[in-house]
Write the structure tokens for this entry.
Amino acid sequence: MKLSHLIFVFLSFSLTSFAQKDSLSMGDRYAEDQIYASVSYAQFYDQPSVISKSEFSYALSAGFIKDFLLNKNGSFSFAAGIGYGFDFFNHKLKVETQNSVTSFSSDASINGNVFKSHNLEFPLELRWRTSNAKKYKFWRVYAGIKFIYNMSNKFEFNDASNTFTYSNISEYNKFQYGLTLSTGYDKFNINVYYGLTPLFKNATIGGENINTKVLKFGLIFYIL
């Protein structure tokens, strides 16, 4: 990108930010269009009985969310957004694909068994906060649902001598959703995502259905 383009983008963003802050002082009605970023500790839950608990895993997320007021003073609103999410799981489920057929198993002899995914996120929220048009530090409770579209997924593990990588397996559920809750004060807020959709479609291990889902909890930051 040319320097002139970068300057134009920077000036546009700055003017937009100043215009929004000026508009907050003009009356009671205001909206909190925000950039958000989150970092979370992540775990699989509802795992098959033969799979032990995952080790340390994490998730990152960032995006933009648009506020639509539901009352005069702006304490209640509806919000919709779009963002990007990255998940990294250090897990115990062995995933392999051979001749376009994916198999799932438990194998204690492998190590470095990780799963990575890149996702588009579409959060929808109902919002309550104690803010007003001139108060920028306040309590909030945002509850909603997040829809996820998986852009890519990769399963990788090591045995005694080799590394095996399988990308974009057909059994992976590319469309997922879950419940969300964000609550806290000012920019520092606790965030929880409780996945309702299994990661895999029509997947079994030892005759048991794999209903593995995702749970995340961490911090989310909102920037006006």
Observations:
- The chain has two domains: 1-28, 31-223.
- The radius of gyration is 21 Å.
- Helices lie at 3-24.
- The chain has one helix and 13 strands.
